[in-house]
Amino acid sequence: MSTTYEIYKFAKPTKKELSVIDKFNSYDSFRIVDEDGDDTGWGIYLFRIDDKSISNLVDSRFAIKMVLPELVTDYEKLYAALDFDNEAIKNNSVHVIKSNVRYMEISDGVNTKQINMSMLEDYKVKVETSCIAIKMKTLWNSGENYIYGLDKEKIIKYIPGIQNYRYAPVNNSMLAKAEIPFLIFEKNRGKCFMEKY
User: Is residue 149 a contact partner of residue 177, using CB atoms and an 8 Å limit?
Assistant: First the structure.
């Protein structure tokens, strides 16, 4: 079994960098280019402010709180337009049972209706979304390294504060016995976090 680890370095986005962000897309990222148009390797990431997995980042000195418009689907209006019973809609009995890039099937437990996915565009509404923006750069990516074993004492010795900055739950199974991530983290203590995927 292989696991990928990534270490990110934080920085605070500038007002100029934030000026190009005009809407919220779930966990979207915006690449940053320099004056010559070259990719800097940094990206600005947006997270919902009420996302529990990033709760320890919300008041970080690297996070900037924002309120941005987000387009979401008004499913109640859609279900009503498809002539599902109002009582079933209010009781949350109507729900999506299957979807792909072209079609969606919706059912109330008795009736099932199929719609074209493009129909959802007609039911998009803007809502104000509280979020945070964080500037992040990948310092190290382990690729598909194999984990042969874990040494809890070594982990605590090298990265005692690893949980200070994270948005993925950190546990012992995240850390391999590689020196590279430890050294990078030590050089950038307080400015980094690790993600496992």
Answer: yes
Query: What are the DSSP E strand ranges found in the chain?
Result: 5-11, 29-33, 39-48, 63-73, 95-99, 103-107, 112-116, 124-141, 192-196
Burial class (CB in 10 A: 0-12, 13-18, 19+), 192: buried
CA–CA gap between residue 41 and residue 77 (Å, rounded): 42
Alpha-carbon distance 78 to 120, whole Å?
8
Paired sense of beta strands 95-99 and 39-48, if any:
unpaired
CA proximity to 168, closest of 188, 137, 197: 197
CB 7 within 8 A of CB 182: no
Token code pair at residue 50: 């009420």
How does pLDDT run across 61-79, given as a tens digit for each residue? 889 999 999 999 999 999 9
With H, G, I as helix, E, B as strand and everything else as coil, classify residue 166. coil
Quick check: pTM over 0.85? no
CA 160 – CA 189 distance, rounded (Å): 10
Rounded Cα gap, residues 96 and 107, in angstroms: 6
Length of the chain as a residue count: 197
The tokens of 92 are what? Answer: 């949350």
